[in-house]
Amino acid sequence: MAILLDSSGSAVVSQQSAAALASPAAAVKDISTAEFASEVIAASQQVPVIVDFWAPWCGPCKTLGPMLERLVRQTGGKVKMVKINVDENQQLAAQLRIQSIPAVFAFKGGRPVDAFSGALPESQIKQFIDALVGGNANVIDDALDQAKILREQGDLEGAMDIYEQVLAQDPGNALALAGLMRGYMDNGQGDGAAEIIAHLPPDLLKHPEIAAVKTALDLLAQDTGDLRVLEQGVAAAPHDQQMRLDLANAYFAAGQKELAADTLLESIRLNRTWDDEAARKQLIKFFEAFGFSDPVTQASRRKLSALLFS
Prior knowledge:
The protein is an alpha/beta fold.
């Protein structure tokens, strides 16, 4: 949890990706004109170096700088970055003919190979960084893909290890946070996931994957009653909609996603307007909690459409 409070046929993380994730995050540093030759010209002979010219009074710099730093760190050492305050290094800025900031240069092999000015969207910055290394610069994206495969294969421990490594490099990575929280929930450690949720800033809570985990936690917090008793009750009184809704919630709490969804679908088939469409609304919450790309969600949405529009 400390990472959060700072801010063959089986899938495995490649040795390159694992080494990159484990590497220190000292990929970004502030330098002066005196260090330019060693930290940029000489260093770029070994690895591409991005130079960010900025100033404390520059509004767009406050947006671009942190985003650029985060994306550079996500390369796991494939790219390095230096930051140069133009107010304190005016001669260097003049030599490079910088007329406005933020101004960003990419050095490779001891010379500038690319540049841009102004605050670009994240997608364009990713393209800028990818071009320096010939594509696929972001090892964290690759690691997250690997973690997803491991989780689908049932290797929860392996997946969570990757999520923790990602968060050590990028503490605000929403996909890794969501993956780690789902791992806790899969292990029956919902309290661990809830603790993470409690420490997240509002912007991260709005991310769809994290919002889905929060919905799942809220659903699990409901008092569902005894599953077998509810099953027997629904069998004895199949038109008792409240008991059917309670049974769906109990299936959800037990991790039986398909049964949870099918129980609500049957409720909708019997009486879709009951209690202001309570069954349909609960099913939508299930979809969010499962994840909209989950196979159960996709299959159940097709069934729901067939019920509503038949």
